[in-house]
Design a protein that fits this description.
Elements lengths: L20 H8 L24 H11 L4 E2 L2 H6 L6 H8 L9 E3 L4 H14 L2 E5 L19 E5 L6 E5 L4 E4 L5 H9 L3 E2 L12 H7 L6 H4 L2 H4 E8 L2 E5 L12 H4 L8 E8 L1 E2 L3 E9 L2 H13 L6 E5 L1 H7 L3 H4 L17 E9 L1 H17 L3 E2 L3 H8 L4 H10 L2 E11 L3 H16 L3 E7 L6 E11 L4 H18 L18 H20 L13
Parallel strand pairs: 2-4, 3-4
Antiparallel strand pairs: 1-2, 5-6, 6-10, 7-11, 8-9, 8-10, 12-14, 12-15, 13-14, 13-17, 16-18, 17-18
Helix pairs in contact: 2-5, 17-18
Bound molecules: flavin-adenine dinucleotide.
The site of flavin-adenine dinucleotide has 39 residues, from strand 3, helix 7 and strand 10.
Length: 534
């Protein structure tokens, strides 16, 4: 697998593929289908870097001249993330916010030194992990600055320590999901964090965005796995997490988790690890309705009986995935990669990982609850298909964009008592804003004793102004989320795209607190301007 992503698509350039004809025919039943052109590489030109030769030389004196990249391709590849608007801009040849240079440090001390140079010259610094942000977290906004750099952490890929007694491991931030798992596997351990972006996203990015993976029911969200952090900030280094629990004031680790590069650069992450699972079983359950399935999830969570994987597609997502799973590669179901299955209703995927004995015991207990609540077991095939296709949906998004179908996602979370209200409000807002043939699908992908996330996937005709169309739809959805009392993001983060709604969530005083923290850690305001803090 290529470690460098395609500049205008998701993932490995070798895996890019056209929509199969059968799927194209199916899509044409709902949307007008027409091939879309992507700007020729040769026609893409970047604004020139405004960084001076002296600044570049200073940066090179820290990381080495080979690790200050100023060529167009390197700058272009770090000019944004992988949201649909990012892809649409990249496809049209718009690379208007690239870094002036890509700087690739290899150690905490090098990161610290780069931040000092950037602060002294007032150069914007955008930490870059895997480049999979979907909230505008990576554009280099350097208006009013002496230029901007992308701080690519891709050379910081060591497993620094393993404590098999405490069951913790310390990882460098640039490790991508598969590489982190491979290093831990050498010690018989796993992290168990599998977001759909797993193949490209990094440990530092997981921490900086409060990521949540597909096995969060069993392993927890990423922020819940973190026990310690080392952070480089313009004000100096910060090291946190010296005991499993502490009453030494507010937990400052929480300031950096989810700080999206605006407060500091995470240079090491200590995580709680688990023994690598001996076995895994993944199976499907069908519910008459989405509400019945969601209620079953709540009962499992509140009985402390959560399996490792627990996901539920609403009726529309279930129906779409069973339209022709072979042709459409598991559906457009965003991060779930939900499995196809016949019979309608609402499909739930339930997975168990662990020792043979624990899987058998937990599976029996969960099966008893689900059967008692009226679920219908539909065997292991849907689970197997989900597992096989769990990282594939982003490739399908590209194939749909190729034929003029706008596909994007938006996610939130609500308490159980308000979940249906949020579901209805967001679905209605999206459909109304899209005003034309559109599909709005949803699944529950992360559950808690007190509530759950909702993950919406939207498909609509791209029309003459797809960026404007999605901006309006996202705006309507976020207004509906706020009005219904849910969060503006459960796991993607705020970035620049959700920033206008942050005050609705944390209040004016909350925003002031964030500003004050930034002023203390980053007095020159060089870290990721425009992200998290206006
Ligand atoms: C197709 C697709 C599927 C996705 N699926 C999921 C999913 O299932 N679950 C989920 O939670 N998210 C998902 N995401 C969102 C994204 O993958 C996550 O936000 C991920 O955690 C980002 O990691 P990254 O290494 O790519 O970070 P980047 O995208 O490189 O950076 C994200 C933000 O964090 C900052 N940052 C990065 N590294 C550091 C660091 N070391 N220190 C400080 N700041 C840093 C950046 O400046 C940026 O603001 C998905 C995205 C895509 C495109």
């Amino acid at each position: 697998m290529s470690t460098e992503m395609h500049p205008t698509r998701w993932g490995d350039p070798a895996r890019a593929s056209a929509l199969p004809q059968t799927a194209r025919d199916l899509v044409a039943l709902v949307f007008p289908v027409a091939d879309r052109m992507v700007a020729d590489d040769a026609a893409v030109s970047l604004p020139p870097s405004v960084l001076t030769a002296e600044m570049l030389a200073e940066l090179a004196s820290v990381v080495g001249p080979d690790h200050v990249l100023t060529d167009e391709r390197s700058r272009r590849l770090r000019a944004g993330g992988k949201s649909t608007p990012d892809l649409l801009r990249a496809r049209s040849g718009d690379v208007s916010q690239p870094p002036g240079a890509v700087v690739r440090p290899q150690s905490h001390d090098e990161v610290q030194a780069v931040l000092e140079i950037a602060s002294s010259h007032r150069v914007a610094v955008v930490p870059f992990g895997g480049g999979t942000s979907v909230v505008g977290g990576l554009a280099v906004r350097h208006e009013g600055y002496a230029g901007g750099i992308s701080l690519d952490l891709g050379r910081m890929t060591r497993l620094l320590a393993v404590d098999p007694v405490s069951m913790t491991a310390t990882l460098e931030p640039g490790l991508r999901g598969p590489d982190a798992e491979a290093l831990l596997a050498e010690h018989g351990l796993t992290l168990g964090h599998y977001p759909q972006s797993f193949e490209y996203a990094t440990v530092g990015g997981f921490a900086a965005t409060r990521s949540s993976g597909q096995s969060s029911a069993g392993y927890g969200r990423f922020d819940a796995m973190v026990t310690g952090l080392v952070v480089a900030t313009p004000a100096g280094p910060v090291e946190l997490g010296r005991a499993p629990a502490s009453a030494a004031g507010p937990d400052l680790r929480q300031l950096f988790l989810g700080s999206e590069g605006a407060f500091g650069v995470i240079t090491a992450v200590t995580v709680r690890v688990r023994p690598a699972p001996e076995t895994g079983v993944y199976e499907g359950w069908r519910w008459a309705t989405f509400d019945a399935g969601a209620d079953a999830m709540r009962r499992l969570a509140q009985a402390q009986l959560l399996p490792t994987v627990l996901r539920l597609s609403d009726e529309s997502e279930t129906a779409l995935n069973l339209a022709d799973p072979d042709a459409i590669g598991g559906g457009v179901a965003g991060e779930s990669g939900e499995a196809g299955e016949s019979g309608g209703g609402s499909l739930m995927v339930v997975g168990f990982e662990g020792t043979v004995e624990s899987v058998a015991t937990r599976r029996a207990a969960v099966t008893a609850v689900l059967a008692d609540l009226g679920g219908e077991p539909v065997g292991e095939e849907p689970g197997r298909r989900w597992l096989a296709g769990r990282f594939d949906a982003p490739y399908l998004r590209d194939s749909l964009l190729d034929v003029g179908v706008l596909v994007e996602t938006i996610e939130t979370a609500a308490y159980w008592s308000g979940l249906r209200r949020t579901y209805d409000a967001v679905s209605a807002a999206l459909l109304e804003a899209l005003d034309g043939p559109a599909l709005v699908l949803c699944h529950v992908s992360h559950v808690y004793e007190t509530g759950a996330s909702l993950y919406f996937t939207v498909a609509a005709a791209d029309g003459p102004d797809p960026l404007g169309t999605w901006a309006d739809a996202r705006s309507a959805a976020l207004d509906a989320i706020v009005d219904s009392g849910a969060t503006i993001t459960h796991h993607h983060g705020v970035g620049a795209d959700h920033l206008p709604w942050l005050e609705d969530e944390v209040g004016a005083v909350g925003v002031e607190v964030l500003r004050a923290v930034k002023a203390a850690l980053d007095p020159q305001g060089v870290l990721n301007p425009g992200v998290l803090i206006a």
